[in-house]
Amino acid sequence: MTILQIALDVPLPRLFDYRLMGESQGSLIGRLVKVPFGHGVKFGVVINEAATSDHPEAKLKSAELIDGLPALPADWLALCQFCARYYHYPLGQVMAFAMPPLLRKGKTPRALKPKVGAGETAPTFNAATPDQTAAIDAILGATGFQTFLLHGVTGSGKTEVYLRAIEAVLERGGQALMLVPEIALTPQLESRVSARFPGAHIVSAHSGVADAARARAFLAALEGRAAIVLGTRLSVFMPMPALQLIVVDEEHDASFKQQDGLRYSARDVAIFRARQRDIPIVLGSATPSLETFHHSSSGRYQRLELPLRAVAAAMPTVTTVDTRKQKLQDGLSAEMLAAISERLQSGEQSLIFLNRRGYAPVLACPSCGWISHCRRCAANLVLHLADRRLRCHHCGLEVMIPHACPGCGNLDLQPFGRGTQRLEASLVERFPAARILRIDRDSASSPQKWQALLATIHAGGADILVGTQMLAKGHDFPKLTLVGVVGADAALFAADFRAPERLFAQLMQVGGRSGRAHLPGAVLIQTEYPDHPLYRALVDHNYTAFANEQLAERQAAGFPPFAFQALLRAEAPELAQALEFLATAVAAAEALGAPDIMLYDPVPMRLARLKNRERAQLLVESKSRPALHAFLAGWMARLYALKTSRDLRWHLDVDPLEF
Ligand code: ADP
Ligand code: ZN
Ligand code: ZN
After folding, report:
1. What CATH number belongs to 130-306?
2. Ligand 2 center to 112 CA (angstroms)
3. What is the 3-state secondary structure (H, E, C) of 556-607?
């Protein structure tokens, strides 16, 4: 009798044995099956075939093979197994996550006539610059696994390098995978890729793709029909039998890390995948993550530099405005106001960047000290004057703005601080003739609204843009020559050791929006700390100086990439329950004995209460990644075996980005 060991979508780190109904022809590994489980049925993937089972064979239930989905290839199974091991997450849950929901339930989408590229746009070829040529030659010269960092500012021609490398792969009959951050997957990029490869079958995969299309894309990739997969983090799991090249654009972007369920980093999984397939991988960025930059300095990754913009255009001049020396008007300095005026007169565009949406971060009562708290979270309610609401940015709770103080009845409640709406209102007052457009998650609350806003900007329908980081990424605004940065100082002193890295990347990216070939750009940064090394590095366009300084600090403090971390988080209705679970986990760790592992004390999370659940965490750290993972494997086995209260939930976050 054949026993099938099956990975099922249940939160247990083990496989389940079933009998096969009837005889099997050939190997069933990688096949989808339907099995009785508990009182219902579940779908799962066959991981192993065995002759015997540890369970009494007579008691084993039967599995039914699902036709219609070809066996998942061995390298795809190995990829899921790697994720299960590395992220200490049940294999069946990894697979359920990695497969499109339709296929996972044994359904196949109706086939569509393949839409072979329109074919009307002829690809355009520019001669590659010498730096681009060197990069392309290095990538195409790789004989097997090699990680490249393609380091170049926005507009330096990185995408052009990816496209040429992809072109060579397609000529050899290979498949290419290109991962991009969530927000960058704009129609512009899709059309640029399809215009370049008019005959190629390209599938795009992101959260906006409907179930049936997602299933079709998966099948097209699996059957080798799709030549290019262009997608956000989830597409790292696309099965691609002829995969020959992986590109991760904006590799530093936080959206590559999933923050719930399987907490994977698509960039790191992509690197594993390239190693597994023995193929090159290109990580591209203007501001590489410090981990990646560190590896490119140590020689583990090969660094390729594109130091200049591809089309003759100077970098914008970056200047700081010392706000300690003057009285601001509605948060804006005299220099900033003058610079905006100049742009208005010359018919150019300005962008004022403030990474805080809403009108004001809090509403307060000056007479009794009441402030607008969320009743479900340890956070303030943000004032949204445009729709007369107070809103929690963590849990979404909304309440009407009280007309009087709930504490003392005072009618004079005051907004404190400044968000994009308030900045917009001030600009409207100061520049009544200007067309002002606010871009943040409130004004661009759907993809349609976002596209409409972009269309307005491209049609020249805005003189001043006010916005959050939504504006920073991947859009060309031809007449934009001024980027003003306000309210950025707070991130200099945030408790999270990665905050400066993020701020630098953000400001570099948003600053890069400014200026074109014939219109030189300027960036003005309002700050109380004009001599801060982060701002100095921005003024000098010197990412490398910033990165090296940060890496020296990280090394001195023993932070990543000089240490490896995992976070165990627990949440429960009462903080004591969460802390108690973590204390049990510490005891389990100590019982295991782990000499090279550092266990910190369990502490409440920074946002300790979210949606009425109290949250705490425990940091585990080691100088050695293998030591950390050996420890985590043993530790997780014990934690999964613990009986915990139904109220309590916990998870492990390996290589956490947020604390
Ligand atoms: P990045 O991805 O680094 O932002 P792109 O590849 O998008 O840069 O290039 C920026 C602009 O320069 C694009 O308009 C692109 O068409 C153009 N470009 C890139 N490489 C060349 C080249 N070798 N010759 C002329 N124009 C180029
Ligand atoms: Zn009051
Ligand atoms: Zn809340």
Report:
1. 3.40.50.300
2. 63
3. HHCCCCCCEEEEEEEEECCHHHHHHHHHHHHHHHHHHCCCCEEECCCEEEEE
DSSP character string of 288-313:
--HHHHHHHHHTSSEEEEE-S-SSS-
Q: Is 159 in the pocket of ligand 1 (CB under 6 A)?
A: yes
Atom of ligand 1 at shortest range from CA of 249: 2
State the closest ligand 1 atom to the C-alpha of 160, by its place in the atom list counted from 1. 6
* C-alpha 573 to ligand 2 mean position (Å): 30
Q: Which ligand is nearest to the CA of 128?
A: 1
Find the 358 Cα to ligand 3 centroid distance in Å. Answer: 15
Weakest mean pLDDT among 270-284, 332-346, 509-523, 599-613:
509-523
Cα of 30 vs its chain's centroid, Å: 29
Residue 422 alpha carbon to ligand 2 centre in Å: 23
Mean pLDDT of 187-200: 89
Q: Please name the fold of domain 564-654.
A: Alpha-Beta Plaits (3.30.70)
Dihedral class, residue 626 (left if φ above 0, else alpha if ψ from -120 to 50, else beta): alpha
> Quick one: which ligand is closest to 129's CA?
1
DSSP state of 20: E
Ligand 1 touching residue 129 (CB < 6 A): yes
157 lines ligand 1 (CB under 6 A): yes
Residue 312 amino acid letter: A
Dihedral of CA atoms 50, 51, 52, 57 in degrees, nearest 10, equals: 110
Q: Give me the percent of the chain exceeding a pLDDT of 70.
A: 97
- pLDDT tens for each residue of 351-369: 999 999 999 999 999 999 9
Task: Give me the CATH code for the 317-357+419-553 domain, please.
Answer: 3.40.50.300
Amino acid 140 reads: L
Minimum-distance ligand to the CA of 509? 1
Same fold, 317-357+419-553 and 564-654: no
Question: Pairing relation of β-strands 280-285 and 613-622?
Answer: unpaired
Q: How close is the Cα of 393 to the center of ligand 3, in Å?
A: 7
**What residue ranges do the domains of the chain occupy?**
3-73+81-104, 130-306, 317-357+419-553, 564-654
3-class state of residue 281 by DSSP: strand
Q: What are phi and psi of 473, to 5 degrees?
A: -105, 130
Any ligand 1 atom below 6 A from CB of 284: no
Radius of gyration of the chain (CA): 27
pLDDT tens, 434-446?
999 999 999 988 8
The verdict on the CB of residue 310 being under 6 Å from ligand 1 is: yes
Chain centre to alpha carbon of residue 431: 36
At the second CATH level, the architecture of 3-73+81-104 is: 3-Layer(aba) Sandwich (3.40)
CB within 5 A of ion ligand 2: which residues? 365, 368, 370, 405, 407-408, 410
CA-based nearest residue to 632, from 13, 78, 97, 10: 13
Determine the Cα–Cα distance for residues 409 and 334; give it in Å rounded to an integer: 38
